[in-house]
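Example 5.3 — histidine kinase
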Amino acid sequence: TERANYTERLEKTVVERTRQLEEALGKEKELNELKTKFLSLVSHEFKTPISGILTSATLAGKYTKEEQQEKREKHLDTIKSKVKYLNTIIDDFLSIERLDTGKTNYKFSTFPLSKVLNEVIYDANMHLKSGQSIKYPPNADDITVDYDEKILELSLSNLIHNAVKYSSENTIVDIKAYQNETHLEIQIIDQGIGIPEHEQRFVFDRYFRAENALLSPGTGIGINIVKNHLENLGGNITFKSVQNEGSTFTISIPVTKSPSL
Ligand code: ADP
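Solution (predicted structure tokens):
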């Protein structure tokens, strides 16, 4: 019987080991699939703007005459905007790494809201579809912000680009700013495709992309990063969305100084 017991124990160990091995192999397979998916996503994200840059650079090189200056500059602007877009994606990847390893350094400064908005809208304007426009908040010049300028720029850039990207021709992206004693709230309102209700609870998950968004380029990391940064700095982000009608994303950041100081 001792021998029988021993065999039984051995069998159990073998079964348990096999199970552990299978689990590990399964995990490795899953990880490998994730890596492949990630690589294909990244390659795809980079390939489209890069071919655009190549085309514009070739065309810009052909317009050498004085009277073709305008055309040349248009292509150079396109190149600039596409390179900037690639830069944002890389910044997003770096942001993820820093957020995950807790290595984010924030830097507070005082600046006019209009400064950040001007920069972000200038870029977003290059991605507009025909008849699309961005409405600037009329009170932006009166608002002074005391925050991490890079983070506010990253947040507004992500949200405004999304609003443009996920809307069709002849729509308006409206930006509104409200300030009270404690918070500055900025709303980005679009008339776009919206987010299907059953997927709304995943919006802040990393790599999430709604099923109705898959025709547009994207990595699903922008909003996740924005939320993490804002929350690290005492702010937050919320949204409301109706499919085929539009979305409103609202960021709120604490006001530490009154605008007149
Ligand atoms: P990306 O746009 O690169 O996919 P984001 O993290 O910025 O990544 O957004 C995640 C997802 O949330 C998008 O893929 C899209 O499905 C949805 N989404 C974000 N903003 C909007 C918007 N303004 N309108 C419709 N869907 C949006």
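Remark. The mean pLDDT is 91.
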